[in-house]
Amino acid sequence: MTEQPDPRLQKHASDWMARNDWYDPNGRDTDSKIAVKLDEALVEEGWDPTTPDYWDELDNRITK
Fold this sequence. Notes:
The longest helix has 15 residues, at 30-44. Helix 2 crosses helix 3. The protein is globular, with a radius of gyration of 12 Å. The protein is built from three helices and no strands. It has helices spanning 7-19, 30-44, 52-63.
């Protein structure tokens, strides 16, 4: 049985990608690769991607 992703995570990710049309989820460009690495770092630091704070922090780090 495959575990389904949390619907809150799916909604936040979907909303984020809609606001950031430059982002390629397959990481085929430098900016998208950086975003993926920042996302991984946030998870490693204990941020919860089902919360709005996570996505705000991701935006803050991408902006830097």
